[in-house]
Amino acid sequence: MKALVWHGKEDIRCDTVTDPEIQDPRDAIIKVTSCAICGSDLHLFHNFIPGMMPGDIMGHETMGEVVEVGCGVDSKLKKGDRIVVPFTIICGECDQCKRGNFSVCETTNRKKHLADKVFGHSTAGLFGYTHLTGGYPGGQAEYLRVPFADATHIKVPAGIPDEQLLFLSDIFPTGWQAAVQCDIVPTDTVAIWGCGPVGQMAIRSAILLGANQVIAIDCLPERLSMAEAAGATTINFENESVLERLKELTDGKGPEKCIDCVGMESHVSASWPDTLLDRAKQMVMLESDRPHVLREMIYVCRPGGIISVPGVYSGFSDKLPMGAFMNKGLTMRTGQTHVNRWTDDLLRRIEQGEIDPSFVITHTVPLEQGPEMYQMFRDKRDSCVKVVLKP
Amino acid sequence: MFHFSNIVRSKGDPKIVEGGPSLKQPPDQLARALGWLGIGLGITEFLAPRRVTEALGMEGRETLVRAFGLREILAGVMSLSVDRNAGLWARVGGDGLDAAALLSGLTSDNPKKGNIALALLMVGGIAMLDYRAAQDTKPRRPPPNARRKLYPNRSGFPKGVQAAKGRAKEMIQHKTAGVTS
Ligand SMILES: NC(=O)c1ccc[n+]([C@@H]2O[C@H](COP(=O)([O-])OP(=O)(O)OC[C@H]3O[C@@H](n4cnc5c(N)ncnc54)[C@H](O)[C@@H]3O)[C@@H](O)[C@H]2O)c1
Ligand SMILES: [Zn+2]
Ligand SMILES: [Zn+2]
């Protein structure tokens, strides 16, 4: 089959690989009908997250049709079912899964020893996302083996196009969880850094959860226009000061809730000296992340407020203003998304026409063009916001 | 060619049968080579500055050579990173500094003039490659003033923004009512 394969920094190729096989009774194999490129994939494209090996198949936003099931999947899934695959592989049985903390499932990371050493504990297995999270082949391919398939799936009905359902795999629940973690009340101002696909979903989620005001921050006009379309007030950090504008928009008090939809690869700019220093340290491996957004959020967030961090950080961040964080009594919530905790509710909202996540798609192309699309999405060319690939 | 990556795959995971084309261009490879060259040269300058100054008849300038070594290493590392273009431009600037330092040693009483002339030639050649590579690896991000498609109609709310906000209010009222009753 064809698959997008990681060969090194900025080197993803569309290779021919052997088809996946059932390896365990709880496996299923799907024929992929749609998959997408995520901002998280860009961190791998840049080789900023350790643990990729040449030959790894990319992709963790995938849906398709079940074509084969192992004997242990029981009646939960059968041939012909249409499923969206959550990016977190879950067993559904461990302590964490029972609590709904799916992204820290204790069972599914098949390279636990690695994660135990690096993070202190192992977290859930993820599709196409380094050997720290199991080294599972990803879903930017024609076929995907879904391990623990009896639990790791979201069954979706016929009659709704792929484009509306695909993002249940990751970015929609990710934006949703980011907003839920803010405990939004109707008087809240929610400020959202980053208007990429995750930021866009967080904006819609904050609105659906009843925020009084949503402020979206980025520098790309096309993404800011998309944020505005959903009723957000926008700040273009290239033309105006984020700190000043946020104060202005909140009567000098700062937003109660802040969401980081940027992560470890913040924009680097001469007007933010900390980002230059971070970038230099990153190059000589003295720091793994560029946490400019975290610093800015801690500084501007209203005392007693909440900081929600769906943006991915990989290792060590320097110069976090812990003094301000502590004295202002802030709360930080973060994590890979517990996808299946939210998807029943979100699927219902899609079915009822409350939201249509396909608004974010700007490019749909055949899988073979994947490597070019990685570059385009990274370079923000052609006003690209979200790429869907069709195998 | 894919032998190694295939052996370390878990049993049953897909293995590469036939490789697809790589998007890496010759200038990327040139940038890589120049980056490693800089790191190698930089390490020599940093660790053995005396060897360098002796060869050039410029004894006493070891500290400068060390500093240049460090500069070479940093620019080299940058040329190997995703910001290779900035690294290559840093190398072009560095080539200028190298040439200036060498020229300052090109005095009539220097017995190693010949070596300096050779070194200048080498720096000139490398500078040309650095410049070429820097030109050819320009970032492909659209310039800030590029024309862009805007998406003012993509609210994502099929029933409109107002309806979405109204629905949120309803849900909150529903919830609080549920708590009090
Ligand atoms: N927690 C999870 O489970 C989860 C899931 C999916 C994605 N993510 C992470 O969310 C982040 C965003 O993903 P995406 O797909 O939207 O990526 P993206 O790269 O498309 O979007 C990032 C956006 O942030 C903007 N940006 C950069 N620096 C900024 C700054 N200093 N201030 C404001 N905006 C800035 C960029 O212009 C860009 O539009 C990534 O780190 C990704 O890894 C996390
Ligand atoms: Zn993702
Ligand atoms: Zn589990």
The set of bound ligands, ions and cofactors reads: nicotinamide-adenine-dinucleotide, zinc ion
Radius of gyration of chain B: 29 Å
Number of domains of chain A: 2
Structural class by secondary-structure content of chain B: mainly alpha
Oligomeric state of the chains present here: heterodimer
Secondary-structure blueprint:
The complex is a heterodimer of chains A (391) and B (181).
Chain A: E1 2-8, E2 11-17, E3 28-37, H1 39-45, E4 56-57, E5 61-69, E6 82-85, E7 88-89, H2 95-98, H3 112-119, E8 125-126, E9 143-146, E10 154-155, H4 162-165, H5 171-180, E11 189-193, H6 197-208, E12 213-218, H7 221-229, E13 233-236, H8 242-249, E14 257-260, H9 273-283, H10 292-300, E15 306-309, H11 322-327, E16 331-334, H12 339-351, E17 363-366, H13 370-379, E18 387-390
Parallel strand pairs in A: 11-12, 11-14, 12-13, 14-15, 15-16, 17-18
Antiparallel strand pairs in A: 1-2, 1-4, 3-5, 3-9, 3-18, 5-6, 6-10, 7-8
Helix pairs in contact in A: 5-6, 5-12
Chain B: H1 3-7, E1 16-18, H2 26-47, H3 49-56, H4 62-80, H5 84-104, H6 113-136, H7 161-180
Helix pairs in contact in B: 2-3, 2-4, 2-5, 2-6, 3-4, 4-5, 5-6
Bound molecules: nicotinamide-adenine-dinucleotide and zinc ion (2 copies).
The site of one zinc ion has 9 residues of chain A, from helix 2.
